[in-house]
Design a protein that fits this description.
With about 325 residues, this protein is an alpha/beta fold. It has twelve helices and twelve strands. Helix 1 packs across helix 12 and helix 4 crosses helix 6. The radius of gyration is 21 Å and the shape is globular. It binds 1,4-dihydronicotinamide adenine dinucleotide. 1,4-dihydronicotinamide adenine dinucleotide (NAI) binds next to helix 4 and helix 6.
Length: about 325
């Protein structure tokens, strides 16, 4: 049985081929992302499954085309599924699996790396000292100890982030549609959204993206935050209204912004564009701020996470293809 991979990078091939040693799938890797431009190139009745990533476009027409080509399973090698039309998957009788929890710590630890870098400016110090510039001017940060850190979304990644921040001695308050008893026992307080964001020194976004929370961080919510708030987003780009964030950076309402995700990232991330002219003025503006840090969706990118992603994805496909259901139903979306 053949699985066709989209948006495939050398590291995807490396980890999936290794994991496939315990299966017997034929794996075919295409570098291009999945979208309407490529579906005609998929050979009919040749692939029973496609394996896709965060920026592949699984719109209704693309899903209809996959079904027409004989694809039976769509395997997301990620946790988020905001790029998939779930109704279309169900309507065409396809199955859809994902990797709900490959390594929450990988993402939480990257959020911490962004926060510490942004605050203590280690990226600037690194460049300075390589130039034999040992001046400290402009490198001042603040203690995280006893600061109020707000976590929006306390699922698997948010919970891991809360625990690390509690270890730093921060006051951790949170907002989620569901409260975690475990986190409450550890000292996390839950409050309504407006209340938490108005108290925050630091806000870290860890909720999944939905129609309801698109642009959660916008001009209105920014206006009720403390002046000088620091915002970290490792979740999904569209949680932040980028132009509103740019305005807030200009006025100093946001004193630091670190993003691993960006609303228009599918045109940019995972590619080397160092020789290109980038037409996206918002990302160019963001990168121009000295207090903005951008990483290209790398929060998940650890050896442990990639090993688990490959193992879990192939195991789910193997189970579904036999007509069985995985023991962890969180892996199955349709
Ligand atoms: P999860 O499903 O365990 O947790 C999501 C939490 O968000 C849930 O507790 C849910 O109740 C909460 N939530 C949903 N809507 C909300 C809202 N409007 N307000 C407040 N809370 C809300 O998911 P997990 O594994 O913690 O992942 C979170 C997100 O992180 C994913 O949806 C994905 O977008 C992102 N992610 C980013 C990665 C990266 O490399 N940058 C890698 C993996 C995930």
């Amino acid at each position: 049985m053949k699985i066709l991979f989209f948006s495939a990078k050398p590291y995807d091939r490396q980890f999936f081929e290794k994991s496939n040693e315990t299966h017997d799938f034929e794996l075919e890797f295409w570098e291009t992302h999945l979208g309407p431009h490529i579906v005609d190139a998929i050979k009919k009745d040749n692939y029973q499954a496609v394996c896709v990533f965060v920026n592949d476009q699984l719109t209704a027409p693309v899903i209809a085309a996959l079904a027409e080509k004989g694809v039976k399973i769509i395997a997301l090698r990620c946790a988020g599924f905001n790029n998939v039309d779930l109704d279309a998957v169900a309507a065409h009788g396809l199955r859809l699996c994902r990797v709900p929890a490959y390594s929450p710590q990988a993402v939480a630890e990257h959020a911490i790396a962004l926060l510490l870098t942004l605050n203590r400016k280690t990226h600037k110090a690194y460049n300075r000292t390589r130039e034999q510039n040992f001046s400290l001017n402009g490198l001042m940060g603040f203690n995280l100890y006893q600061k109020t850190v707000v976590v929006i979304g306390t699922g698997k990644i948010g919970a891991a982030f809360c625990k690390i921040m509690l270890g730093f001695g921060c006051k951790v308050i949170a907002f989620d549609l569901y409260e975690s008893e475990e986190l409450k026992q550890l000292g996390v307080n839950y409050l309504p959204f407006e209340n938490v964001i108005s108290k925050a020194d630091v806000i870290s976004l860890h909720c999944s993206l939905s129609e309801e929370n698109k642009y959660l961080i916008n001009a209105n919510s920014l206006a009720i935050m403390k002046k000088g708030v620091v915002i970290i987003n490792t979740s999904r780009g569209a949680l932040i209204h980028t132009k509103d964030a740019i305005e807030a950076l200009k006025t100093g309402q946001i004193s630091g912004l670190a993003i691993d995700v960006y609303e228009q990232e599918e045109k940019l991330f995972f590619k080397d564009l160092s020789g290109s002219i980038i037409g996206d003025d918002d990302i160019q503006r963001l990168i121009s701020f000295p207090n903005v840090l951008v990483t290209g969706h790398q929060a998940f990118f650890t050896e442990e996470a990639l090993t688990e992603i490959a193992a879990s994805t192939l195991a789910s496909v193997a189970t579904l293809i036999k007509g069985n259901e995985p023991s962890d139903l969180n892996e199955i979306l349709v």
